[in-house]
Design brief:
- This protein has helices at 91-95, 163-169, 180-194, 197-205, 207-215, 235-242, 248-256, 266-289, 298-305, 307-311, 318-329, 338-353, 356-371, 377-393, 396-408, 420-440, 451-455, 460-465, 468-497; strands at residues 5-10, 14-20, 30-34, 37-42, 45-50, 62-66, 71-77.
- By secondary structure, the chain is an alpha+beta fold.
- The protein has a 4-stranded antiparallel beta sheet. Strands 3-4-5 form a 3-stranded antiparallel beta sheet.
- The longest helix has 30 residues, at 468-497.
- The chain starts with a strand and ends with a helix.
């Protein structure tokens, strides 16, 4: 049987199902409604949905067929008029069977405390502190699961036979023989080694291209934030979320997602949140720097900027997660600018403000990019597909809690361990000395220790026209020449006194 493409709209008293089933015999179509279950059959199409609320058959049902579109339009009244059916655009959750069986956990809870001592799911994330650093397993007490990877670190032994393909999409050589701590340390050392000072300075002073990227307005620009005070979805928020729709291609992707449910601990959920943030950061960076037009390098860029995808890394805190993403954005892509990276971080916050529908759209686009870029499709199997399923079951309160944590977080240049402040200060000194020479019309002879260096600087255009390599070499040469001249001058003074 074929699962047809479909969408659902709701009003105060009705649900309207739009089911695309072309080339079918309309007279043989069957529709079944019982409580929260809706079934549609018209050979060869079959659709079964589990709704978040009950429907009623009271004689007000309507059904029609649009031959031009090949689409059935079915209108069913709600059992309780005015009831809001949440997450009707989360198609994968609607397709899951009512009695969907999940894998039985290894530990079964036989008895527990009453619900009065257990926080509600909606309140679980209200006061969660995203800045608290988690303790990882030390290297001398590595558990078997400490060398796992994939979604919620639940995968192992899946890449033993694909080391050649894996080396093309990840920076980690053998994820099954390296612990979480070792991955994080190796990643940080590699980032510091790969940092290119010349490239960074060039993007710092050649700001025209960066300025255009900062002015770019993404698809989500200008949308109001979705505010959910005290866990209650307001009418304005509901209206805004409903305006974010999926394309036909994205609907097909949702229908094709496997039906599974994830049994996760609180620690695993936090780990997933950190991974989600660095993946969305990579997506947002690609979207802004390509101005919404994906390129052949888009899959590589998203993967490269995400420590989760490129190193199978696990973050210990929200600051660690954001710092790693920002640092990688200054090391690997074509445009390397701190202001640009901060703007991308604001883009991530804006996407979180729009709720899980916007996040799911981003993940589906990443899934499409990876599926079309061999061998990036491996990352879909390890991470993205499960993220697409998991995010549909997430509570909006958790997403807004993440957003609040990101808004409170401030990343400075000194947090990146790249010595950016010192590098920029050295470059600014050169430019200031050059400007001083232009204003005076001749080298400043008040300080004999730097007179020789000032003679080598003719005008500002000389510095601006230097290429990336020669510019930094010039700065360091100037610095060491100043030290040598100061040393030689001191020796001469001592000889005169003698």
């Amino acid at each position: 049987m074929i699962t047809p493409s479909f969408s659902i709209e709701q009003s105060e008293g009705f649900l309207t199902f739009h089911i695309r089933a072309p080339y079918t015999k309309v007279s043989d179509a069957e529709i079944f409604v019982e409580d929260s279950e809706f079934r549609f059959y018209s050979k060869p199409y079959f659709l079964r949905l589990s709704l978040p609320g009950n429907l009623s058959e009271d004689g007000r049902e309507e059904a029609s067929y649009d031959a031009d579109k090949g689409e059935f339009n079915v209108r069913i009244p709600k059992e309780t008029e005015g009831e809001h059916f949440a997450d009707l655009d989360m198609l994968s959750t609607l397709l899951a069977p009512i009695n969907h069986q999940v894998k039985k956990p290894l530990i079964e809870v036989l008895d527990c405390q009453t619900n009065s001592s257990t926080p509600d799911a909606e309140d679980e994330w209200l006061d969660f502190d995203w800045q608290v650093e988690q303790n990882t397993v030390s290297d001398d007490t590595i558990l078997p699961s400490d060398s796992c990877y994939g979604f919620a670190n639940k995968v192992s032994s899946s890449v033993r036979n694909i080391h050649t393909e894996l080396s093309e999409i990840t920076d980690i050589k053998d994820p099954e023989s390296i612990s979480f701590n070792e991955r994080s340390n190796a990643r940080t050392l590699q980032e510091l080694k790969d940092f290119d000072e010349e490239h960074y300075l060039a993007d710092l002073y050649e700001s025209e291209a960066i300025g255009c990227l900062l002015k770019f307005q993404p698809d989500w620009f200008g949308m109001n934030r979705v505010n959910i005070p005290n866990g209650e979805v307001t009418e304005a928020a509901t209206s805004l979320v409903s305006n974010i729709t999926f394309t036909e291609e994205e609907k097909v992707q949702l229908v094709q997602l496997p039906h599974k449910e994830h049994l996760l601990t609180q620690t695993e959920k936090v780990t997933l949140v950190f991974g989600l943030i660095d993946i969305i950061f990579g997506y947002s960076y690609n979207h802004r720097t390509t101005e919404g037009e994906n390129t052949v390098e888009s899959a590589w860029l998203i993967r490269k900027l995400s420590p989760t995808l490129s190193w199978f890394d696990t973050h210990t805190s929200l600051k660690d997660c954001v710092t790693a993403s920002v640092r990688r954005s200054l090391v690997y892509p074509f445009h390397r600018n701190f202001a640009l990276s901060n703007q991308v971080l604001q883009d991530v916050i804006q996407i979180l403000c729009l709720g899980k529908v916007a996040i799911l759209k981003c993940l589906l686009q990443i899934q499409t990019l990876f599926s079309r870029s061999d061998p990036h499709f491996i990352l879909n199997d390890l991470y993205i597909t499960d993220y697409c399923i998991w995010i549909q079951y997430c509570d909006e309160q958790m997403i807004q809690s993440i957003r609040n944590g990101l808004e409170e977080l401030k990343i400075e240049k000194c947090d990146l361990d790249l010595e950016l402040d010192e590098l920029e200060e050295a470059a600014d000194l050169v430019l200031q000395e050059d400007q001083s020479s232009d204003v005076n019309g001749e080298p400043d002879t008040s300080n004999n220790t730097i007179s020789d260096e000032q003679d080598t600087v003719n005008d500002k255009s000389l510095v601006q026209e230097m290429n990336k390599v020669s510019f930094l070499v010039y700065i360091y040469k100037l610095y060491f020449d100043m030290i040598n001249l100061t040393y030689n001058t001191s020796i001469c003074e001592c000889m005169v006194l003698a």
